[in-house]
């Protein structure tokens, strides 16, 4: 039974058939590869390091510590000696929940990967015409880009053959990674068994690896069994505080202007005026460590400082919040949405979950000393202030907790104890 009413009419329920189909055998390979450091240049980090089950598919940090770091989550350190990190990951590790929903056509916080035939390979992506053909979903396509990102997984030039190949051209590294995987006998056998197009391990390509990763991410991180989903599909009432928060969310608080649709995201880009810090996602001509968001992909000044609206299922599991993880709590990010300028003015650096990295501390917050850049960011704002009482804010936070699914707390395949490469699993 679907509930009716003007409030909930804005939020269709999520059902299994709305996701891209997955194959259990492929998903099992993807699970192992997701946690296998064999896919990183220096064999020291996996997808799961920054999107771990223990942290709701994230890493618990404002800005992650990628290749060269050690440990997991908030305890992760920045490495030592020649292996130490050269900069923090510029953005917060994004949620994987419901990424396999068929409605999603654009991914990453700046939308730099989207379904398109502009390059005749199915996608508009940073790899342009060099993205291999045959990738069947946007979720499989996105899975292979962290593998060739210097500070995320590939490492620095001259450190390994992956980083060196990327220095020549982005697609040069993918065949090397595919060979690493298929020459491990256990992986080779699994690919032959799971893929109809593969008769021998030598046929495994990065496209097959991407499909396996995509099937795992899609099946593992589906979520539509929260108390809120039970309200939508069964008419089961929420607790009183959560119900009040729901009414505010879709009513006076204006949250649903952007957090709409079945995934509670309009999948568009908006400027929230979040406090700025970190290395920024700079382009070659950027004069400062800033992050211009969607404009970095579109080159359209109208898109400056706009970031993709996040999906909200299991949001309570994926702190901290914002494109750079500026707020450690749901209350903080809700208050920012209600009063962006006021919250930006009182924000302090200690709110950022940044593991100590002494050699980077001088630049972690240097962007805040750039008066003109701060003025530009403060001026670009797509949300209007709304006054709510502390009790009303608490009700909205309670509603957001009602978006946590039951299976999200347990996982499906979960984290493997070991992987075929024999490398340690984080």
If you had to describe this structure to a student in words, what would you say it looks like?
This protein is mainly alpha-helical and 426 residues long. It folds into 2 domains: 16-58 and 94-222, Cytochrome Bc1 Complex, Chain D, domain 2; 224-401, Cytochrome Bc1 Complex, Chain D, domain 2, CATH 1.10.760.10. It is built from 16 helices and 5 strands. The chain has a 3-stranded antiparallel beta sheet with strand order 1-2-3. The protein is globular. Residues 1-9 have low confidence and may be disordered.
Radius of gyration equals 21 Å
How many discrete structural domains? 2
Strand order in the largest sheet: 1-2-3
Q: Got a strand count? A: 5
- Strand residues, percent: under 5%
CATH fold call of the largest domain: Cytochrome Bc1 Complex, Chain D, domain 2
Largest sheet: 3 strands, antiparallel
